[in-house]
Amino acid sequence: MPRFSIIVPSHGVAGRLSLALDSVLAQSFGDFELIPVCDAPDAPAGAVAAGYAERDPRVTPVHSPPSAGLAGARNTGARAAHGTYLLFLDGDDTLAPGALTALDARLAVTGDVDVLYTEHERVPWWEGEPANPAAPLLAKAPSGAFGPAEAPRITGVLLPAWSAAYRRAFLEERRIAFPEGHFTDLGFGGLVTLHAERIAVLRSVVVRHLLRRQGNRLTRPGAHHTELLDRIEPVLAAAAGLGLSAARSGPLFEQLFALVLKTAAHPRRLPGRRRRAFFRRAARLHRRHRPAGWRGPGGSLGVQHRLLAAGAYTAFRALRGANQRLSAAARLLARPRGLRTRLFYRRQLRRPVDPNLAVYCAYWGRGYACSPAAIHAKAAELAPHIRSVFLVEPGRAHTVPEGVDHAVIGSRRYWQLLARAKYLVNNANFAEGVVKREGSVHVQTQHGTPLKKMGVDQSTYPVVAAASGSFTKLLGRVDRWDFNLSSNTHSTQMWERAFPGRYEHLEYGYPRNDVLYTATAEDVARVRRELGVPEGRTAVLYAPTHRDWRTGFEGGLDLEAFCEAAGEDVVVLLRAHYFYDRGGARGTGRVLDVTGHPSSEDVCLAADALITDYSSIMFDYANLDRPIVVYADDWDVYTETRGVYFDLMAAPPGPVARTPQELARVFRDGTYASPGSAQLRAAFRARFCQFDDGRAAERVVRRVLLGEPPEAIEPVLPLADRVPAPAATPVRS
Q1: How do strand 628-631 and strand 609-612 relate by DSSP bridges?
Q2: Whether the Cβ atoms of residue 648 and residue 490 lie closer than 8 Å to each other
Q3: Mean pLDDT, all residues of the chain
Q4: Looking at 192-300, which runs of residues are DSSP E strands?
Q5: Mean pLDDT across 150-160
Q6: 441 pairs with which residues across the strands?
Q7: pLDDT of residue 470 exceeding 70
Q8: Rounded distance, CA 442 to CA 468, Å?
Q9: pLDDT at residue 443 greater than cutoff 70
């Protein structure tokens, strides 16, 4: 029997689950079992937990459906546990170093107790100092084990479930479990307080609790706040049934109703029509369960208690004071440049949202490209009633196909469209001043699978952070997203970490990659002619990524020399990062500069093989199932300065070359197309080409623009059943 069972629910936190599990497995005290609770074996967190279970026998995943909620997940984990003591850890929290050693040492001193309360840190997810709210409460506890009457103000009402260790036999004997619904910690902690006979405290931090950027769901507005009374009533009834003394029942009553009054006094937590009913029910509970001889606190809180007991809702509302809606509305006002533009945009925001207007933008207005363009084209086919407008920078209108309506960024029409559009689709972000209107739908398509660190994960890399601007402003833009596209579960988890928000993940694939499955041999031949690829030549696409520590494009590879060394039939298509787009196509001998070509997908179709360093183009190109070679001449520098989400060298999509000589040899001797290369590529495709099957744009249009329910959306075709677009030149082996 292990000393501790650590139960970790994981719903909605797959991207951070590994941090929680790592914090447990890194403990110096090893006598424990770790029980991740996942939605299902095939859920994102299920795959993460299964990987840990393969590596460490102490990890035993169990499954609880999302419909069972947090309470169901914890109860499922508790039923599977064998440890003497149970610890509950949220999936995005961590155990402090040495936490289990400290718990075991404290229990050795106190002997077996029913519950051992501990301190915890509340860590701001971004800025601010950690807080230890339990410390003042636990500082007043007796030094050893004690009975509840000796310290009646130390209750589970004020402490979350993960701020304690519970004796498993005690919970089973008393049949204490987490109640369903919201405020489950309160219901559980209240019952533990009532039934525990031996208690102790540990005055050191055990759990570091991450304060989510989205806020605690229990503080958000909604009808679920009525469930607070559902959790409190059984605790009050149990206390009455036990006949507790006033010394014990008084502090418990006061703590419970402090939470009730906090909710009743908050003008936005409950919908208006429910506030009065909540108040009246709370008043009945207050009168029914008030301990004999209890004297309320002084000051404003005491007045609130008296008004609640009297059921004086109108007077309570007056005491609560005016709400802050006007100041909140002022914070939402747009700030486009220029007074006349601001006034114009503000007037447009007063007009109704146009339910049949969609606005698209790609790469901050560089042109008609990427997934926004693919969704735009599919919308014209499946949702012709929706008027679509593409946004482009001044001087980029020539990139928009004939017949596609467009507007120039910064113009009056641009601000008018952004103010009134129902649907806003982008692969980057709209301008800082754009307001997220009620009823509008923002779709973030992304523009690649993340290998390098993105979003707020960049903050610990000084070179990148210095060039990224305000992360606070970035996350303000993230707050506008309703949907975020993903092409694989890795991306889903990393977007969750890099861009924390309340949006919904759509694991539909990237619409821009649809053409990699739908293009024909004629399409491939046409693109090659447009790019100037000589017939019968092997076209190798060289696509290096941007280096944050450089100010301009430095390829780092003599491409003409590579062509000479690789073979007489090889030509190179150079596609630098779009930061270095100089416009148009250039060719010098056997090197064709296609950086300015508007479609990276067309360039991929034209190429018989890919050379890249750490560019996300490798994930897209892998859909074609054509050879990929990684040229990693500065991998150590890149990982140190930019940061990466996984070790590409350990799981590459093909051969890895570190020098120009190695790279040329890989092509000259055919290693780039060998069976070993194909085996690496197959594993890479299985991991990163999960949802790209040629129908991503259709899924987005049907779900977002046509409003079809998730269950009606066509499922992703299995990888083995997909047929990529054909290559133009047979690969040399």
Answers
A1: parallel
A2: no
A3: 89
A4: 199-211
A5: 92
A6: 423
A7: yes
A8: 22
A9: yes
Give the C-alpha separation, 660 to 571, whole Å: 16
Structural tokens at position 20: 């929680």
Nearest alpha carbon to residue 276 among 230, 311, 304, 325: 311
Only one residue has tokens 């994102």, namely 44
Amino acid present at 163 = S
Lookup: tokens for 411:
């113009």
Do 24 and 89 touch, CB atoms closer than 8 A?
yes
Q: 0.85 cut: is pTM over it?
A: no
Give the 3-state secondary structure of 692-721.
CCCCHHHHHHHHHHCCCCHHHCCCCCCHHH
The string of pLDDT tens digits covering residues 626-650 is 999 999 998 998 898 889 999 999 9
Distance CA 4, CA 58 (A): 11
Place of tokens 């040629």: 694
Comparing 699 with 433, which gets the higher pLDDT? Answer: 699
Which amino acid appears at position 84 of this protein? T
CA distances from 406 to 361, 367, 387, 402, 433 (A): 10, 10, 11, 10, 20
Nearest to 667 by CA among 653, 682, 677: 677
Confidence at 333, pLDDT banded by 50, 70, 90: very low
Q: Are 427 and 370 in contact (CB under 8 A)?
A: yes
Q: Are strands 354-361 and 387-392 parallel, antiparallel or unpaired?
A: parallel
Closest by Cα among 179, 182, 157 to 256: 157
Interhelix angle 299-310/272-289, rounded to 10 degrees, is 90
pLDDT tens profile 584-603: 444 557 899 998 888 999 99
Among candidate residues 520, 513, 545, the one with its CA nearest the CA of residue 446: 513
Question: What gap in Å lies between CA 493 and CA 18, rounded to an integer?
Answer: 10
Quote the CA–CA distance of 544 and 309 in Å, as a whole number.
Answer: 70
